Amino acid sequence: MVSVSLNVEKMSELEDISHHIHDRISSLQRMLDLSVVALPHNKIRKLGQELFSLQRLLEELEKCVDRQREQLKHLKELEQSFQKDAENVDHLKDNMPAHMPVKKGPANGKPVLNNNDGAAVQLGQPENVKKSGKNYVREMEFITMPEFDSIPQYMRGRVSYDKLNAAVQSLNTAVTAKYKILHQSAKTLNNHARKLHQRFKDQETKDTKGQYFVVEDDIREFTQMRVDKQFQGILNMLRHCQRLRELRGGGLTRYMLS
């Protein structure tokens, strides 16, 4: 709006000068038409003054034109810059990652429990207990593009950036669903959820105290992810990015969030 206003003012200034010059030229033309008659000395001097004044007006007009030309150049540069920014925004919009890395955690000391568990288990009604820190479920952070690029090609194979983060999301789903059950009293759960609750408790050891982990059965229980050879390759990449580590014991491999 400021640029448009300035342009209007400049155009108005040029028009005023142009009209003024035209009037002076018309006046001079009339004086020249009268020059066929002998002019008094004072009239000749007046003609000279008019010519000198006209010259100054023409110089001022040239300066205005130069300013307008410089401003037009500047506006074209701004237009190119805006066009480039618009292209960058369109590129970002068309290439937005499906999974954006976000750090999650309790804010202001208040725990947050995500509701995206997708569990296939019918849970009982939770107890009406006051929320506490034990209800907070930690989740794995998504892989950033620089981290993905740091993974050796032989380890990546055909796994894409989006597919790796989709696996992160599935593991988070399993972790959230598991600990949502664990954070409830067994008395409030149905039969199936109560069996899962007991299984989760049995899988814990002194080394897992205060840690979040899942096993392959949890992944099958709460997600659609296939536990196959490619899944093992994804786990290797997540270990490389320090998102999880393995703890073996009792015939189980526990995938612990780092």
From TrEMBL:
Keyword Cytoplasm among record annotations: no
Annotated GO biological process: cell division; chromosome segregation; mitotic cell cycle; regulation of microtubule polymerization or depolymerization
InterPro entries: SKA1
One GO cellular component, as annotated: spindle microtubule
Signal sequence annotation: none
Entry keyword set: Coiled coil
Pfam family, one: SKA1
Gene Ontology molecular function: microtubule binding
Coiled-coil residue spans: 44-95
Similarity section: Belongs to the SKA1 family.
Name assigned to this protein: Spindle and kinetochore-associated protein 1
Source species: Solea senegalensis
